[in-house]
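Hey all, sorry for the wall of text incoming. These are the two entities for the joint prediction.
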Amino acid sequence: MIGQVPLDEPMLVEPGMAPEGGEASSTGGVFRLIFEVFIENRLAVIGIGIVIFFVLFCFVGPIFYHTDQVHVNLNIENQGPSIHHLLGTNNVGYDIVGRLMAGGQTTLEVGLAAALLATTFGVLWGAVAGFVGGIVDSFMMRIVDALLSIPTLFLLLFLATIFTPSVPLLILVIAFVAWLVPARLVRGEALSLRTREYVQAVRGMGGGGARIILRHIVPNAIGTIVVNATFQVADAILLVAYLSFLGLGVPPPAANWGGSLANGVNYVFAGYWWQIWPAGICIVSTVVAFNFIGDSMRDALEVRLQRR
Amino acid sequence: MKTRSALTRSLLGGVAGLALLLSACGASTATTPQVVKGGTATFAEPPAAPPNYIFPLMSLQYFSVSNLGDFIDLMYRPLYWFGQNGKAQVNPSLSLAQLPIFTVNSSGDSVATVNLKKYMWSDGTAVTSRDVEFWMKLLVANKANWAAYVPGAFPDNVTSVTYPSPTQIVFTFNKTYNQNWLLYNELSQITPIPQQVWDVTAAHPSTVGNYDLTPSGAVAVYNYLTNQSKTPSTFATNPLWRVIDGPWTLQSFSNTGEAVFVPNKRYSGPIKPKLSKFIEVPYTSDTAEFNALHSGAVDYGYLPTQDLSQKAYLSKQGYSFAPWVDFGFTYFPLNFTNRTVGPIFNQLYVRQAIQEMVNQPQYIRDIFHGYAVPSYGPVPVVPANPFASPYEKSNPYPYNPTAAKTLLTSHGWAVHPNGVTTCVNPTLCGAGIKKGAGLNFSLLFASGVTTVTSEMEALQSSLSTIGIKVTLSQKPFNAVLSVATPCPSTGPNVSKCTWQMANWGGGWVYAPDYYPSGGEILAAGAGSNSGGYNDPVNNANIVATHTQLGTAAMFTYEDYVAKMLPVIFLPSADYSLSEYKSTLHGVVPQDAYLNLNPENWYFTKG
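and here's what came out:
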């Protein structure tokens, strides 16, 4: 009997080359190549820098810059920037810098968690639909089509109106509308991947559908997934901002950038720029940063664009 | 002849001299405005509170200024009009009837004889006692659904109504009442409605009948009209609502709440509209409204408090500033009928603790920038009136976090600042409160008004310091109003009634219960008693105000309310900081009961 290459052992491949099918395995060379392509994109590096900055600002900043973001202080409402309040205070006396930190935590948490949840669910949905095919595929994708036909903002407003907003709910609501895109993308990949020889081989050796999907199809669509996930984060942050701007974000005293911006806009004629610009800059910077990263990830993971 | 001629010359000379003098005066006041015939005036509706109901007989969830004073009253005039030159009093000239003649019959009961003036419906028929009877029949049969219903009062206390002629109605009551109260709180509630069109139970071609004359028929008519009134898109097209007796007829109504009115050419009242069109424009927030005002798109709008710095700019743009003070007070109800938190709200010390965490002076200074007055009881302090008692004005529960905390600890609660205070001694906590129960409430408030949002955030923050956790959420005004109704005690909707505290942001304006005896909002079972408060002493105090003249009974009632806190009192902000174009006249004085009278308005050339 001819010996079989153990499925759980790395295949013999040339250094720096992706395995030709089979179960995806890590090779330092591939990642090095991806990394090299990635960092060639200056905007991506800037994007990474911005994201790191905001993560540190929001999660480490409060350790050094102490503010009370739970209790209002009407005695210092609407004050301009000063040594005591670097970016001034808002209409109920919250320090703006502290508010941006607290709001950034919520925004980033919701954005990242919603993107992760949407990507995970969407990938599995699309992979199953694409792999199984036939009537199951048709049924599953018609559900996707039906949900895609509903305007996102309308659906978000509807859901956020029915339920009392909270961080977990915002994550669920945003993920509920965001999973459709990765589902379609991965389904397209799965339709192609399921015909590959290594998938046939797994079938021939008695491998089940779950194993094929989780160990072969999903890992081999990882490029598409990762690129989409970065855009998902950016989109989710924007959606959080939309909802909060419309008054459907997390209730006070919790903060988020969209809510801070919406609150600041009430004072646009009063000239309280410090209540508008910082929150707006935070939202725009973070969204642009994730888009930079996504663009570069696409360059790095897309075979046709790679410099080999 | 001479004499005559001389006289004539003398007269001519005098007239010529007077003409010269007048022309000279005219030259010196060359800016004397010239009245413009017609014109369109736009009025900004309150933020996120467009009209959504047109049938004058309504339940609590529709009982708002936006629906009544700003909308329905323009088309359907009440029997008695209140508000005269900005003063809180009856206005005989705008009423559909002469002031009632009060007598006492041989049984010692009050009798009110009402004589109608000559008013016409827009279909050419006269407003008669049959239209009043139609209202009364619908009211009696459907009183439980009526927002202004006070058990034992109108219409329960009317033992008989007779209609001796098409222009006369005689009400007989079950005892002798305070005549002012009868006029201001009972007869004031009547709005004649067109029986010749509305006495139907189904859509056309159903024939108009006298269905209202039987209780079951009156219920069927009410149900039909109520259902028709729930479709705003048909307000301007439904044949029912085309027959009116007010000065304005609705030309169009959009789903967003934009109401376009044109003059009712058959209006029989003394003041005919001068404008050719009057438009009420909806806005989702005060910021959106101010954007429109800033751009000059609104003739009569309001300046949000946060934009007070723009007052001078608006003045340069040709706007005049006029704070609109109403005869009302601001509060938010606690839901005593909520099965979870009702037992907690039933404890006076809990309500006192909450009230003592409301820093009204600071809210007035920092949130309303002075355009508000404190509310410590149910009777307004301004406009000046004889009913506000010295005790109510004295602020029985001033801001005092220490006292609030002591109240809780002395009643068996373990106070956890910034956490949730819990009951550790149920015996002291009070009836129905279990060990471990927490002071953890939800508070729904109206969206779109920055000052209300700031106020609720400040209150939430303040309460958190003594461990009263409040979770805030926002909905539009009409949605809050529809939620804040007493929970049913039985039936499938019991579990759906979950609201705990609700603030629609506007409190209460005493209209059409113009006499501030508070029955509609605080008497047990009253149609607008949102929280379901029920206190026998309070009920008796309210009843006493109905019969006793003078201020003694009123003081007793309001002092008790101020002490017992059936609601949480908040500063009463001016209804709006109105801005109106200086070329628009007749806007001021603004009505203390918040009614609109655009028939008084006219433009002059700027």
